[in-house]
Structures are given as C-alpha cells and as structure tokens.
Design brief:
This protein is α+β, with helices and mostly antiparallel strands and about 675 residues long. The chain is built from 26 helices and 22 strands. Strands 12, 13, 14, 15, 16, 17 and 18 form a seven-stranded antiparallel β-sheet that branches. The protein binds 5-amino-3-(furan-2-yl)-1H-1,2,4-triazole-1-carboxamide.
Length: about 675
C-alpha cells in the first residue's frame, strides 16, 4: 500500500516536471516540443492520479491553475522592496543629460546600459519561496498592492515552480502583464459577437482581467507575463542586469527578446529610434524605451529618489493619440448587413500614420461616447487595428451639434434598417438585394444545407458579383454557359457541371428555400417550423408578428426579423424572380427532412440560454442541436429558463442563473444531455 502511494507520488512529481517543461516551451518560448493532444494526455494522467490520491494535490500542481473559487475582495500585500516607478524623458536632450549626470555621479567616462521596450500593461510582483510561487500582487501604491495570487496562477507564462534545482530561499520577480495584440483582437471579436462591450485597448483589458474576483474569468483571458527584473532577493543573483535577466529566463520566465546591451547616450538614442521603427511590427503595445545601467554595483551608489531609481529612465515614444475633427458620421454596411457607424475625420497624423477614418463600433458606442458631427475628438491608433475614437473634447463642441442617429434606410440599397430587440447591431433588411451583402448572401444561398448548389465556392461567387453577372440569387438561374466561360479557370466541363447543379437545385423544399433566404435569426430549425406550420410560402410571407409568435419555438425577435424581411419590396422582387426561374417544391413542409429530427425530441418543453464559448460547438450549432431536439433557446436568463449552458468566459448570465437558482451546465454536461 505504502509502496503504491510512494509510486504515485513519484509519478505525479515526474508528470508535473514534464508538464511545466512543455508549458515553458509553449507559453514562454513559443516553441512546443509535443502536440497539444500529447500535452492533454499528460495533464489527464496527472489529474486522474490526483483524483485517486488527493493528498498529492498542491497549489503548485499545473492542474490547479484554475482551481480557485471566487474571492470576496482583494487582500493588501506589502512588497518586500518597494516597486518604484520610472523617471521620464520626453526628448533626446533629456536622454543625453541623464547619461551625463550618471557619468558625473559615478565619476566614469562611459556607461553600459540595457535597453528594454517599455510594455504598456500592468506591473506585478511575484514572490517565490524555495522556488515555489507563494504570492502575486499588483503594484498598488508601490509599497502595498493587492494580492492577486489566484489570478496570477492562471497565467501560463507564470511558472508555479521555478525551473532550477537551487532557487533562492525568497525572491521577488517583477514584470508586466500584457495581452498580445492578436490575442486582444480575438478577445474583442468574441466580446462583440456576444454583445459585450469591447475593451478600449489591451492595457485596459489586461488590467481588468487581473482584477477579477473570479479566477476562472482571468483564466479565460489571454494574459502574458514579460519579466523585467527582481525586487528583494535573499541571494545576489548576478553582477549585472543582463545577468539577472538571463537567470530569470533560465528559471522559466519570458524575457523580452528586444532587450539589448547598449553603450552610452548614442547607443540609447539609436535603440530608441529602432524601437520606434519596429513598433507596428511588435505583437504588444509599448509606450517607451526603458534604459537601465547594467552594472548593479552602480545602482546602490546612485540610489533612488522618493519615486524612482536614479539608474533607470523611461523614454517616451511619440503618442499614438491625436485630436482631430469629425467631419461626418457615416453608416457603413458590412457583408452580413450589419451597419457600423464610422467617423470621417479631418486627416490627422497619429504616431506617423495619416488617419482619416475611425470606427465607432455601433450606435450604443456613439451614444455612450456622445460623438457628434463637428466634434473635436481624440483618436487612437494601435498597430494595424482600425483607428478608434476614444473620447470627445466636449468643450470644443460647435453650437447646434446634434446627437447622431442611425438612418432609417440602408445607405447602400435603401431597405429598412432595423435593430432587433436583443442585438447591439443595426442591420439592413435588404439581405437578398443589398449590393453590400451580395457575396455573403449568395454564399449562404448556395450552401449545402440551403439550396445545395455544388461547385460554387467563394472565389467564383466573388467573380460573378464583381463582373456583375450576378446581382441577386435569382440571377444565378439566368446564367448561361457563355457567361461562365468568361471567368477565370472555368472550362466547358466545369461550366456544364455548375449549370447542371444550379438546375438541380430548383427542385427543393420550402424549408430549405426559407433557410436559403438568409433572414436574420432564421436558421434551419426555424425554417422548418415555418414550413411545417404554415404550409406555403405565401402564408409565411403574409404572416404578421402575432401569428408568428403563436408558432412553436418562435419568439418576438425572430418574428420581428421575419416580418421586416418580407416587408422589403426588394426582397419580394428577388423571391418572385426565383419562383419564375423555376424554383419549386412538391413537399412544402420538407417532412422527409423533419422525420429524423422528430424521432428524438428529447428536450421538448425545455428552455435553454447559451453563454460563453464552447470548445466543440459554435453558438449556432449548440442552438441548432437544442432546437433539433425540440428545446428552445432564449437570449436572457429568467425564472422560466430550465438550463444555462456556460462555456468559458461566461459573463453576467452565469451570475444571474446562480442568483435565480437556474442549473448551469458546462460543455460536458450539455453534451451528455444531448446524448
Ligand atoms: C516595462 N513596463 O516594460 C520596468 N518595464 O523597471 C520595464 N518597467 C521597470 N522595466 C523598474 N521593461 C521599474 C519599472
């Protein structure tokens, strides 16, 4: 027995070391040695071992990174050594003067420095005892910060155990937590898709993520730690700063690759210039260069002021923000019909690039920031992302400037613009007709589960639209062989195949046809309900909201979207075109296709709400799976909700479900329920 326990302990230790090693390869060196599946297998083995032998679990196990429960609040945490800020230099003269002053104070002719990019994130202090992470804290006022240990543990580039056999007894490691640019863009895309307000910039996102009381939320945010030094240490680690950074790298931390040894003031200025030139290519936001004297013996000689060490300097980079005037606010129609307000600006140079437009995201954002035509605004450009309006200088507002409103009609096609009740976005309702939406609408129309026209990929659809051979779906049925032969890489054989495929698609079902129209909120399942319950296209087109809401599984938002769609004369014209081209169905209800689904209506009568990201299903797929089993999906949690399905980063819906006592399913629980 004792033998098997000690065997398990040894195996667990070996697994932890191996996992930490691969973690370091992946999250710090960006150079994994094994496939994700293999890594998962190691984690699974460790987790089962720990489940069998709970006495083996410790907070330093990689399985425990996201283990903790939400906190009530943050405890204060006193740093062993204060976290000072940095003195600033705004000009080249400031840098030359810094070097001159230090050389004078040290009575030397020349100094060697270390140049570092100054990352724009949140500084943290990590305390390790005997090589194990015991506490993490924000900078706070420099003396006392907030303890965020559970959150820091979720950051994969924070080693839980240092990769060394002889760590100091106690040491503070310091660095900057950031969100890399590509991770930030993905995070904001995800937030917009969930109608959550996007973060203004990576810094705010990183700061907000670290200050979450629930570490599970932090765990879902793509945070990265770059270390730049140490605080108090029970042992001297090296004689110079580069040596310290080397030791930190050996311990498993990420040290910025653009850290360099530079000589004298000329070296510093040259380092700064190169950083400015490379700024847009960096994957993280920086707001300056940091210069540090390399020789640590000189640090105590130079000492510190009340705020900052005398041996270091932050040299600011040119600002990426500028003020300019909003000439007009234009509604811009995207390929799915979503209308984005865009500010047309008086051209302005922002950090070396001329900016003439900035996104305002959606109408709520325009109102929240209260941006009006004629306003003077602050705009920000960060890397390659679309410039944004940050705020309005209200003192400069011209008299009579009026609040902006979304136009009632699409600026591209004149169809009605509607905001469906539970969406942040406004949409053009002319889905079948609007030139801005042509490619998107056609791709959907021809897709396998819609009209199922084989051989029409996106490239081809684009060519057909760009050469104006096709404007609406109805035009597809007018294509001739000679129309197709003029296109790139289109031979007689493929043209013939495509025409046959188009011809074959004419015989369809009403359900498929309704789905193919691409009505917002109408997926396959709703299309089938409409076909089954109403029986004919005319009945669907003429149903009012009241009649639609009376149908099973159709709520007010879907009903509104359907009636608005068919109210557009332009959409009706396209539908007429399709019918007169010969699109038809014998079996209006598509009963055959329904048959298989009706067999398993295991979720009949149950109402679900979806939140967060599921790993193996998109939101639409999860919805379809529920609807196919007779269940219903609604947008918000209420007393009538039977289950909340919560993926990662679930947001406020989860809190609400817990308050109301609504059971919460994770992805596994949900899959089990689907069978
Ligand atoms: C940042 N933010 O990247 C320091 N920093 O050193 C770097 N901050 C720093 N160094 C001493 N690279 C105090 C702050």
């Amino acid at each position: 027995m004792a033998d098997s326990a000690s065997h398990a302990a040894a195996r667990a230790e070996a697994l932890r070391r191996s996992i930490e090693h691969h973690n370091h390869r992946y999250y710090v060196l960006d150079d994994p040695e094994i496939a994700d599946a293999e890594y998962d297998r190691l984690m699974d083995e460790l987790a089962s071992l720990e489940a069998e032998h709970p006495e083996l679990i410790s907070v330093h196990s990689p399985t425990q990174r996201v283990g903790s429960r939400p906190l009530e609040g943050f405890e204060p945490s006193q740093h062993d050594r204060p976290m000072l800020s940095l003195a600033n230099a705004f000009s080249r003269e400031d840098v030359v003067e810094f070097d001159r002053r230090l050389r004078r104070n040290l009575a030397v002719d020349a100094l060697t420095y270390v140049g570092e990019p100054k990352l724009d994130g949140l500084s943290i202090n990590l305390r390790y005892e005997q090589g194990r992470l015991v506490e993490a804290a924000t900078r706070g006022d420099g003396e006392v910060g907030e303890q965020i240990t559970a959150n820091a543990r979720t950051i994969r580039s924070v080693p839980l155990i240092l990769l060394t056999d002889n760590p100091p007894q106690r040491v503070e490691v310091r660095g900057e937590v950031v969100i890399r640019r590509r991770d930030f863009e993905a995070l904001n895309r995800q937030r917009l898709a969930r109608d959550q307000r996007p973060f203004a910039n990576p810094r705010n996102a990183a700061a907000g993520s670290l200050r979450q009381l629930d570490p599970r939320i932090t765990a879902a945010r793509p945070l990265t730690l770059f270390v730049f030094g140490i605080g108090a240490s029970s042992e001297a680690l090296a004689e110079d700063h580069l040596g310290i950074l080397r030791v930190l790298g050996d311990w498993g931390f990420r040290v910025n690759q653009r850290v360099e040894r530079v000589e004298g003031a000329d070296g510093l200025l040259d380092y700064h210039d190169r950083l400015v030139a490379e700024r847009d290519d960096l994957d993280y936001e920086i707001d300056g260069a940091v210069y540090k004297v390399n020789d640590i013996a000189a640090w105590s000689e130079l000492g510190t002021t009340a705020r900052a060490p005398r041996w270091a300097l932050a040299h600011k980079l040119p600002a990426r923000e500028a003020t300019t005037v909003v000439e007009s606010i234009l509604p811009s129609v995207g390929r799915t019909g979503v209308i984005t307000p865009v500010a047309a600006l008086q051209d302005v140079n922002v950090g070396g690039v001329t900016v003439g437009r900035a996104t305002l995201h959606n109408l709520d954002e325009v109102h929240r920031k209260d941006v009006r035509e004629g306003d003077t605004v602050m705009v920000r450009r960060a890397g390659d992302v679309i410039p944004e309006v940050v705020s309005v200088v209200t003192s400069k507002r011209p008299p009579g400037a009026e609040a902006w409103s979304m136009p009632a009609h699409c600026p591209v096609c004149g169809s009605e613009v509607v905001r469906l009740d539970d969406e942040a976005a406004h949409r053009c309702m002319g889905g079948l007709f609007c030139p801005a939406q042509r490619v998107g609408a056609l791709m959907h129309f021809v897709s396998r589960r819609a009209m199922d026209i084989d051989g029409l990929g996106e490239k081809l659809v684009r060519q057909l639209v760009e050469t104006e051979r096709v404007r609406t779906a109805a035009d597809l049925y007018q294509l001739s062989c000679s129309d197709l032969l003029g296109l790139e890489r289109m031979g007689e054989k493929s043209a013939g195949n495509l025409l046959r495929s188009i011809e074959a698609s004419k015989q369809t079902t009403l359900a498929r046809f309704l789905f193919a129209l691409g009505i917002s909120q109408v997926g396959e399942v709703t299309a089938r309900v409409l076909a089954r319950e109403l029986g004919s296209l005319n009945a669907v087109m003429n149903a009012d909201e009241e009649a639609l809401v009376a149908l099973p599984d159709i709520g007010p938002v879907v009903a509104q979207s359907i009636t608005r769609f068919f109210e557009q004369t332009t959409n009706r014209q396209v539908i007429e075109g399709l019918l007169s081209a010969g699109v038809t169905w014998d079996d209006p209800t598509g009963r055959q296709e329904n048959a298989t689904d009706d067999a398993g209506r295991t979720l009949e009568g149950l109402t679900f709400v979806l939140t967060g990201t599921l790993e193996n299903l998109t939101r639409d797929e999860a919805r379809a799976a529920i609807e196919a089993r007779g269940g219903k999906v609604t947008g918000s949690v209420s007393g009538r909700t039977n289950y909340l399905v919560a993926g990662s980063d679930p947001g406020s819906k989860r809190d609400k479900a817990e308050t109301l006592g609504v059971p919460v399913l994770d992805e596994d629980g949900f899959q089990a329920m689907l069978g």
